User: What shape does this take?
Amino acid sequence: MWGYRNRLNRDLERWRSAGWITAEAETQIRADVEARSHSVGLPGALAILAAVLIGFAAMSFVGANWQDMPRLLRLTLLIGTMWAAYLLADQLFKRAMLPFGHAAVLLGCSVFGASIMLVSQMYHMDGNPPDAVLLWAAGTLLAGVLVRSNPTLAFALVLFSVWGMWESMQRDEVFWPYLLPWALVAAAFAWQRWSPGVHLSGLTLSGFIVMFGYIWHDRQGHELVVAAGTIMGFAAALGLARLPALETVWRGGLVYALLTVFAGLWALQFVRSPGTEAFIVLAAFALAVTLAAIWWGLACPDRLTLWLGYAGFSIEILGIYTKTIGTLLGSSVFFLSAGLIVAGLAYLAYRLHARGEAREMRS
Assistant: This one.
């Protein structure tokens, strides 16, 4: 939504300057966008933080006084607090106090998780500990979908990620079932068209794929990471061309495909320690990926991809310098090569910027 607003503000100013819309129409468009906005803002962020703190306070209080309470009082307190939070959220949503409603839903989900932990302790339930986190995450996902609460969906994805990581650490292998709840939450984010959720989904999926590479380190895991990231990038580019209505999803996919490919290439170069010829090929490929990201960021424009490309290029150059200085390349040759590449980037940026200005003047 934030990126859409920035583009819309630039377009509205240009349209008004060209005489295509009136000042009154511009004001009405801005008001309509504000009315449809689902951003949290500072008050909502503070309310969400307050809900988290209150949830921890409730868990700490109940935990400290747990042994002194009768079992019926314990259950009544837990269930009553949870439903009170959900009823409060319902009233806040009806009064259009959306950020505070989201905070109340999060509070209810926090108490739900505390209830699972404390009840299992009360009745001495044995089992697989990550299963409790899975149940907590499933309930949080259900609440987030029912009330269309983006912060609650984000909390559900965090819980599912904790569950998947815990299971993977226990088994010391890739935990593939994690992908199912991940896909459900990602689909909910796409349904809501919430850009931060799309980025959170991309980040967690990239983390899962990169972790897979390290678990399968001796079984071509990093090569598979590069292949998976490449496929993600092609799929996102194809989706951007064929389904532009989901532009936010596809742009996010390109960003995290870039991160995945770069992480895999980095591991192949600097973790596995390949031979000289293989290292040169991998380094060239990594630099090509970062240059492609910079080109894409300049041409679209896409600031996030642009700065990730710059960061990746800098990290790659520093890694190459650290690994090869005094062996493959002399200092002067290295810096000359890097300088020529950066000069080429500067020229490319200048041409793209000039082309964009010319396009705007023609329109």
